[in-house]
Amino acid sequence: MHVPQMVLGSRGAARAPGPRLRPTRRLRRFPTNDPIIKRIWALGMDSSHTEQLGQVLFDSLGPRLMGGPELKHAQDWLVKTYRSWGIDAREERYGTWRGWVRGPSHIDLIAPRVRTLEGTMVGYSPGTGGKNAVYVPVILPHFADSAAFVKWLPNARGKLVLVNAPPATCRPTDDWAENAAPEVAAHMDTVRQELAREWGGRNVRGTGYSLALGGGELGVRLEQGGAGGIITSRPKNGWGTREIFETYNKKTPAISLSCEDYGLVFRLTENNQHPKLRLNLDGTLLGEQPVFNVVAMVKGSEHPDEYVVLSSHFDSWDGSSGATDNGTGTLTMLEAMRILRQVLPHPKRTIIAGHWSGEEEGEVGSKAFTEDHPEVMKGLQALFNQDNGTGRIVRINAGGLPDAAEHLTRWMNTVPVEFKTQTGYDGSPGRPAGGGSDDFSFSCAGAPIFGLGALGWDYGNYTWHTDRDTYDKVVFPDLHANATLTAMLVYLASEDSTQITRQRVDLVALARQDSITAAARGGAGRGFGRGFGRGRGGPPAWPVCERAPRSTNPRLK
């Protein structure tokens, strides 16, 4: 695969296609006369490179599935881009992961009528050997227990098993709320909830198996029982969007259909109208492949053993382009480094940009980095992580460290008033990252982390892990602001005269205050995320670090 060359500033620099927005002229009020803050603003807001970078990353390079060649090609491009700016960058190998190459997917209904279906393979799916294969679909029944499921398995031999619930509707909830009579909308909510209970959880339809992130253990057991493959559909609560994850199957295909087409095939099957599907799928499993993080670095001039880290994961699911998860976080950090290289060529502390792989598999790359670089963990002054979509940064979590909150308060009093206002930062120490993004890998060790939370833009319904996470969903004016604010915070953290201490917030007292506040508002207290050492009925505790898996789980190979 050709790796696009892009050296910004040259005549051959990539340009985003179509109409281009002029740089967003925002009012800005600088509370200080710091010339570096003003120059960061000018470079980030008036001459951003995010559109050009994003066009190459999302359109030409595309999705970046863990272990696949597309991720490696994108990492090669990332290193070359950094080096073209005079920034040292390298790929650090930390293990292996199962690899896979996606080829074309063609899925057709050929009986009782002809229709090309909107669908594709899920990640890591075996193909059909580049040949047409005709299948009859069958619905997964409800079973009294797993023994009954095993007894039924011969009925699925050579067939495609529909393993998700039939859609009650393919309209979003807000469309029902806006247009349906109240009693009709309430009934639809009830139907949806019943289907979710019947087809979800760790015991799908009484089989004793779960679907996990796609086919899961159920798909593997069906394959072992002789099924020809599985059909999945995980529609989001939005128009025409669905999640596309992965399968653990090794021989038989796993495909995902749109809500509408899955419903069509399900109803035809349910009503004994004898549907047939023709599949031509090109998917190649590669076995264990080396996996890497990309690490870029500008060495510190006064405190080289103290570190400020820009953090974002680089991998993505491959149902689309990985634009807002987490291409926008990647561009935020990449653009911030470009700006900092120009305004702060000799920072006091070492500045690192960490573009982690394997986040979607459980923060694998960032966990490996913390284990492989104890010197960074020891000297970490601050880590800034962004991983929740394209919107402007509207909240910052200080990771449960009171001194981090004090430092952040000072820094926010230095950046333009507009940034301080939009984040609404109130000086709170927040709480440690509880899992779900790479800041967890650092926060669990008590390191200073700052989670940069973005405005939603309906992220959960339309782009997060979906087949619609593409270039056109990126809100570039907000991305300009995010990279600019991040560059300012990294600059201030690097040049700060004091190092952040690691005294932790009292989580028990914090939970108690949450409960008091929630009770006053008539609601429930805020929960704690994955990784917290909280027993049933016990007090919350600091999250516990998890070891990085250095290869694919043997049962998935």
CATH homologous superfamily of the largest domain - what is it?
Zn peptidases
Compute the number of helices: 17
CATH architecture of the largest domain: 3-Layer(aba) Sandwich
Number of domains: 3
Compute the gyration radius: what is it?
Answer: 25 Å
Name of the CATH first level of the largest domain: Alpha Beta
Q: Could you estimate the helical fraction of the residues in percent?
A: 25-40%
Biggest pleated-sheet summary: 9 strands, mixed
Q: Provide mean pLDDT, rounded.
A: 93
What structural category characterises the helix and strand content? Answer: alpha/beta
The 3D shape can be described as globular
Total number of strands: 14
What does the model show?
By secondary structure, this protein is an alpha/beta fold. The chain has three domains: about 35-60 and about 300-495, 3-Layer(aba) Sandwich (Aminopeptidase), CATH 3.40.630.10; about 105-285, Glucose Oxidase, domain 1; about 510-550, no CATH class. It is built from 17 helices and 14 strands. α1 (about 35-45) packs antiparallel against α16, α2 (about 50-60) crosses α9 (about 325-345) and α9 (about 325-345) crosses α16 (about 475-495). The longest helix has 21 residues, at about 325-345. The model is unreliable at about 1-15 and about 530-535 (pLDDT under 50).
Short description:
Helices cover about 35% and strands about 20% of the residues. It has 17 helices and 14 strands. A hairpin with a 3-residue loop joins strand 1 (about 90-110) and strand 2 (about 115).
List the keywords.
Glucose Oxidase, domain 1; five-stranded mixed beta sheet; disordered N terminus; Aminopeptidase; alpha/beta; globular; 557 residues; nine-stranded mixed beta sheet
